[in-house]
């Protein structure tokens, strides 16, 4: 799906998705690439962490660990 489609489906603004992607918080590391359902799952997780008080800086360390655990 495109960035715009992901934004519409997730309810997260496209500019925020771009910022999260550039920060390395999503498995898709290029905001111009096609996003998958997995990216939407991770976006939901990032959004949940942020809504509950985590910072983007906190998540820069945490999300790669989560991705590694999910891949195992």
UniProtKB/TrEMBL annotation:
GO molecular function: DNA binding
Pfam families referenced in this protein's UniProt entry, alphabetically: MerR_1 (PF13411)
GO biological process: regulation of DNA-templated transcription
Stored InterPro entries: DNA-bd_dom_put_sf, MerR-type_HTH_dom
Source domain of life: Bacteria
Domain HTH merR-type stretches: 1-64
Protein name: HTH merR-type domain-containing protein
């Amino acid at each position: 799906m495109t960035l715009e489609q992901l934004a519409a489906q997730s309810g997260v603004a496209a500019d925020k998705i771009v910022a999260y992607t550039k920060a390395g918080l999503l498995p898709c590391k290029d905001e111009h690439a096609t996003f998958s359902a997995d990216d939407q799952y991770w976006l939901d997780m990032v959004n949940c962490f942020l809504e509950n008080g985590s910072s983007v800086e906190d998540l820069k360390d945490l999300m790669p660990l989560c991705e590694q655990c999910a891949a195992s």
